[in-house]
Structure formats: structure tokens, C-alpha cells
Amino acid sequence: MTAITAEGVRAEVRAWLNQHWDPNQGLVQWRNILVDSGWGAPHWPKEWHGRDLPDGLLPIVDEEFERVGAVGVAKMGIRTLAAATILAHGTRLHKEKFLRRILTGEDTWCQLFSEPGSGSDLASAITRAERRGNKWVVNGQKIWTTSAHRADYGLLLARTNLDLPKHKGLAYFILDMHQPGVEVVPLRQMNGHASFNQVFFTDAEVAPEFLVEEDGDGWKIATTTLMHERRGADSMRRYTKPSKRSERIYREEAEEIAIDLEPYKWYPQRAGRVDLVIERAKETGRNSDPVVRQEIAKLLIMARCAEWTARRARAAHEHGRPQGPEGSLGKLAASYVARAANRVHTMISGADAMLAGKDSARNGVIAEILVSTPAISIAGGTDEIQKNIISERVLKLPREPQFDTDRPFREVPKNTLAK
Ligand SMILES: Cc1cc2nc3c(=O)[nH]c(=O)nc-3n(C[C@H](O)[C@H](O)[C@H](O)COP(=O)(O)OP(=O)(O)OC[C@H]3O[C@@H](n4cnc5c(N)ncnc54)[C@H](O)[C@@H]3O)c2cc1C
Q1: Better-scored residue on pLDDT, 110 or 262
Q2: What is the CA(112)–ligand 1 centre distance, in A?
């Protein structure tokens, strides 16, 4: 077997693009060609639309796509978590039915995990799935479901057995969102955007073949989805810039990005907009205040350290090395940076930071930062949960005491009416 080299990959992808890339075709048509070639997701297995390419060589493929302006496969939103979970745990049927359409962007997905009484402690989910005849029937409620209002399918964690301990009585399903038993109700946040939803299930149905692995494996599979969610937090940023070119494929891609990005368009503000701090200090004259200058310096040092730590984690991953503590620190570091940036923006803008609307500081962006940064400490696992993970898995401190893991879930005291 010949070794895969960077030069070899570059030559191969360049030759392939020279032969096949044409911006005057439809987006889905092009992506199907890409999927068939394996260059759309080259790190995926050969059997499933990939080329078994090591992650470390992906930047070379990206560079060649960028060189000619070629559009890639769909890479935004929960569909990436669905793909990772299906690749790891799905059956042949799941892979055949879903993976191609995830890459072509034809299907969108949502993550039906959190519930009103079950967020950090996801394993205490009480949405029920019962086997009735030849189908699973789902009843209950999920909440904070990003993009559910546009989703074709949902990754559903549901309880199938109340007599087993909480982690064991769960199953993982692929749920068709377009059915009468699924009601999606949008939620509006304090920053004015409506990215989330409540999702109500009333006798919603799932065919048995869309149970992922076995009944009882739900927790194990949810862990795979969550691991990819925490790890992939910044991957979206790389793929969200529409091209300014006018050929059909770019127009179609720009439309797709606008729709996919809608729930995430406040995410830059959620991260604290460290990039605006120096400009704002100059604009307002606060750059001559020694206290503000100190705080700006502290913030920039913290942000730079977090970025370098994230790069170390990425480099380890790309070279096939296991991630060290850096992987667990990244999400928590992002929260600290966002909170510090929020504070510095307030120091710089003073009371103006509270004004929204077009004639306010930076067209309302500064106010939006103030009301968006709390979300980063919650989404994908709160700061406290990240600290627990770091203390237990990285520092090997004793586990948090658990009182509810060994007895039947039915007997665990809870503030909800799980029957
Ligand atoms: C921007 C955003 C997008 C989201 N998207 C989705 C989505 O698409 N799908 C989905 O299913 N969910 C989604 N969520 C929900 C998110 O996963 C939950 O909000 C999160 O897991 C926290 O759960 P909770 O809100 O129920 O808070 P709780 O779990 O009730 O936590 C309340 C407080 O108690 C603390 N706490 C809880 N347990 C412990 C503990 N063991 N030790 C110490 N402190 C603890 C928490 O840190 C927090 O401060 C999203 C949330 C946000 C903000």
C-alpha cells in the first residue's frame, strides 16, 4: 500500500477539481458529484462517501477548494452531530438514508435532548417512548431545541423503562419531525432572537428501524453526540462566509447559509466580540483611562491564551494524538473570555451599552453582547458541569456524590410527574 502524503493529496484533489468543478451548476447537483468522489468528506470512511483521510490532511483539501472557489458539502448546524452519531452507531439503513442528504444539505436536523426538568442532568429525561405493536410511540416535551422549527429530523433521547436505573432506561431515536404528533413552539430570548423552541410530542411515532442500536443504549449514544458538540464548537465559524460571486451555485449556497445561520447570527456577540474592544476604546476615548487599559490588556491576554490552547488541542487531534486537558478547557475558557469581554465593553461604553437600536453604540451590537454572553456558559454543558468534568476526568478528583444512579428511575425523587 502506498503511503498517503500531503503532496499526493494536493495533486489528486487539484486534478479532480480541475476536471469536475463548475460553478454553473446547481448546489445539490454539485454536492452529489462531490459525495460520489469522496472529496466532500474525505476524513469519512471510504464506504460512506469519504476517503479515510487523516484529519491532519484536511487543511490541504480545504486550501485546494478555496484556491478555485469550489463549494463544499453542507457543514453547518446539528446535521454535523447527526452525521457523527450515525457514522459511529447507525445501521446500514441509517447510513444509506441519511448521510448523503446531510452532506448535500437537503435535510436539516435538531437535537432533542434537553427537557424542562433535565438539562445538565440529561440522563433524567422523562419524555417517554413506548413500544406499541410495530412502532414506538413518543409522548413528552423537549426544550431549548435549536432550529427545531426548520428541522426534518431530530436526534431524540427518550425514556423507555422506568424500572431501570436512569442511565440504563433510555433509548436514542431518529424522529421524523414532519408528523402530526410533533408540535414546535418558538421561544424568544432576551436578545430578541428566536433560535430555540419547545417541542411537544403527542403520540408521535418512530418505526422500530429508527431506534439507534438497542433499547437501553440511549445514554451511550447521546454521549457520542455531546462529545462532538463540545469538540466542534468552533468548526462552524470556518464555513459561514458566503461568496460574493454571482454564479448560480454561489447564490444557492448564500441562501442556504442565510437560512442555516439564522439561529446562530447572534453567536459572535455571545462570544463577547473581543475583536471590537480596542476600536471601541479608541472611538470613545476610553483608551486613555489607565484602569480601562489594564482591563483590556487582561482580556486580550486571556483571549490569546485560550486561542493557543484551542490550537494545541486541534493540532493534537489533527495528528491523531489523544486530546489532553486542552480539549476540556476550551469550552470553559470561552465562557471566561466572553464574560470578561462583556465587562470590558461595559466599562468602555458606560450607560450607552444598555441602549439598543440603530442609533445606539455600534447599532445595538454592544447591548446585544451584554444580553447574549450568558448563553455561552449554558449551551452544550454549563460552566459548572465543565468544571465537574475537568475535576473528575482531568484532575482525577473523587466523583461528585450520586444518590440516584443505582436504583430504579421510578423511585428517584424528582420535581416532575414521571409515571
Ligand atoms: C444557546 C443554547 C443552545 C441550546 N441548544 C440546545 C439544543 O439544540 N438541544 C438541546 O437539547 N438543548 C439545547 N440547549 C440547552 C442546554 O443544553 C441546557 O440549557 C444546558 O444543558 C443546561 O441545562 P438547564 O438549562 O436545564 O440548566 P440546569 O441543568 O437546571 O442548571 C441550572 C444551574 O445549576 C447548575 N448545576 C446543575 N447541575 C450541577 C451539578 N451537578 N454541579 C454543579 N452545578 C450544577 C448549572 O451549572 C446551572 O448553573 C441550548 C442552550 C443554549 C443556551
Answers
A1: 110
A2: 13
